């Protein structure tokens, strides 16, 4: 038995597919499982213990993309897969499904592309309060896999040992010791509709530092938002020079970011790929939701590990498609006040301390 999975594009979307990979391995313990992914999210699945093969397809445009897709289609046909599941539903992934000539091809019902599949599953509306993991889980129904349990079927991304060592060096250079409570604050997102205001981030960090001077902070961002991280650190200096001395900022690749969060005492961030990378660890999470819903994008992890959503509450324009802000003031973000996030972070840190105490007690028992 050979099974092909395809999920293109973004990091968080690929993280949300990992429970399905584990479910397929349980259902087909001897199968050859292959996963097609684009470079940006390849690290999420590259070390997955349930996968036999990861195929990374370049994200080019124009003639180069056509050439890449034709080459991959030929490879997929040669592999002679028995089952193919399109976890994406976009034009490129559905075409790859059809071009693979796999006898059983499962995908979402999509206008103009459903004919490319042999088995079609209804697709919930994009803005519906239906969690992304459960949405994709429905693609397993034609295989007789129905029940999804959050404890058993949590998202996962294995630890990269080399990344752990790199993070140890980074923290040592920043004078952050293993005993220091480290809070990772991710300040960027894929689009402006998910970016909490910089002043709010600065106020949040300054207040958390004031409450406990031993706390250290690592402000992280994507490559396109490096200026935002620096600007936030500058704002903290304007608020409190003492707090600024506890703050560092840097950019990390996917493997290193996961290692950093796994070392941290808490993670704070908006609905973006790093939030979902964080959810593959046991680190307490405070998630900031603006135009998206927690019901759809909350970290999908074992309930034993703390995760709390903070949002602006009900708004007539929320959720939205993140193309135009109808009120014009991004109120779903600006109305998330730093005080409510501080309270959530304190609850996260209390959960982390309680967990550490339980582990010490278990060691001594």
Q: Could you describe the 3D structure shown?
A:
The protein contains 15 helices and 12 strands. α4 (62-79) packs parallel to α5 (91-100) and α7 (161-173) packs across α11. The strands form 2 sheets. It has a 6-stranded parallel β-sheet with strand order 3-2-1-4-5-6, with helices on both faces. The chain is 41% helix and 15% strand. With 365 residues, it is an alpha/beta fold. The protein has helices spanning 11-15, 18-27, 42-46, 62-79, 91-100, 132-137, 161-173, 198-211, 226-239, 241-244, 254-263, 273-278, 294-297, 331-334, 338-364, and strands at 2-6, 32-37, 53-56, 83-86, 104-108, 119-121, 182-186, 216-220, 247-250, 266-270, 285-289, 307-311. It has 2 domains: 2-143, Glycogen Phosphorylase B (Rossmann fold, 3-Layer(aba) Sandwich); 165-364, Glycogen Phosphorylase B (Rossmann fold), CATH 3.40.50.
């Amino acid at each position: 038995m050979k099974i092909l999975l395809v999920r293109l594009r973004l990091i968080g979307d690929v993280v949300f597919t990992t429970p399905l990979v584990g479910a397929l391995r349980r259902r087909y313990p001897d199968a050859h499982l292959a996963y097609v992914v684009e470079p940006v999210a390849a690290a999420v699945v590259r070390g997955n213990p349930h996968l036999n093969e990861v195929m990374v397809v370049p994200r080019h445009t124009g003639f180069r993309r056509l050439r890449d897709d034709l080459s991959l289609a030929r490879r997929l046909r040669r592999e002679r897969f028995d089952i193919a599941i399109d976890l994406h539903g976009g034009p490129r992934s559905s075409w790859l499904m059809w071009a693979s000539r796999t006898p059983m091809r499962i995908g979402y019902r999509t206008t103009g592309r459903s004919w490319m599949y042999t088995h079609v599953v209804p697709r919930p509306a994009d803005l519906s309060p239906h969690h992304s993991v459960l949405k994709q889980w429905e693609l397993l129904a034609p295989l007789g896999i129905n029940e999804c349990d959050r404890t058993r079927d949590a998202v996962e991304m294995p630890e990269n040992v080399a990344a752990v060592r790199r993070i140890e060096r980074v923290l040592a250079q920043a004078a952050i010791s293993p005993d220091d409570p480290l809070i990772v604050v991710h300040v960027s997102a894929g689009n402006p509709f998910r970016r909490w205001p910089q002043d709010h981030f600065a106020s949040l960090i300054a207040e958390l530092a004031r409450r406990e001077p031993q706390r250290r902070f690592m402000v992280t961002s994507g490559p396109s938002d490096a200026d935002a991280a620096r600007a936030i650190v500058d704002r903290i200096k304007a608020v409190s020079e003492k707090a600024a001395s506890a703050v560092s900022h840097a950019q990390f690749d996917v493997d290193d970011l996961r290692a950093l969060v796994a070392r941290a005492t808490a993670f704070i961030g908006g609905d973006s790929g790093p939030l979902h990378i964080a959810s593959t660890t046991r680190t307490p999470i405070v998630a900031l939701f603006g135009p998206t819903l927690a019901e759809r994008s909350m970290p999908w992890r074992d309930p034993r590990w703390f995760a709390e959503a903070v949002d602006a509450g009900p708004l007539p324009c929320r959720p939205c498609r993140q193309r135009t802000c109808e009120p014009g003031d991004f109120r779903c973000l600006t109305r998330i006040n730093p005080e409510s996030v501080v309270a959530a972070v304190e609850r996260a840190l209390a959960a982390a301390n309680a967990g550490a105490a339980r582990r010490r007690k278990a060691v001594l028992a």
